[in-house]
Amino acid sequence: FGSRSKHSGQSSCLAASVAFSFITMASQTKPMYTRFVQPGRLALITYGPCEGKMCTIVDIVDQKRVVVDGPESLTGVKRHLMPVSRLSLTDFRVDIQRGAREKTLKTALAKDDTMKKWSETAWAKKIAAQKVRSEMNDFDRYKLMMAKKRRAKAVKKTIKK
Question: How far is the C-alpha of 158 from the C-alpha of 161, rounded, in Å?
Answer without folding.
Answer: 5
